Amino acid sequence: MHLTSPIRATRSVITVGAFIALGMLTACSSTPKPSEEMAVARTTVTRVSAAPEVTTNAPVDLQKARDKLVMAEKAMSEEKYVVARRLADEAQVDARVAETRADAAKNANNLKQVQDGIRALQDEINRRAKP
Question: Is 0.90 topped by the overall pTM?
Fold first, then answer.
């Protein structure tokens, strides 16, 4: 009887360990593939990359988006879906940041042109007003 107690204890530990391992595998496999997030991130990064003003005015942000998309693709292939989802979301946000920075630079340039035009008109008005 003394010999069966350690054997039973060992079997119990093994059984509990097996259930824990099974639970962990089930938890990992229950995480759905982030297929939609990946598709949206790919589309956003591709669309933003095609805009020349983005590559000119926000190359760092655009590269961050591209890098994160590559890392998300790698995580997907390794079935690390939580990581893939996070990186896909970050890639999409970084692409939008690049797009926003490019738009801001374009708007700043347009504002400067308008201000230069106003200044030129004001100079012309002042010159004609002199007797």
Answer: no
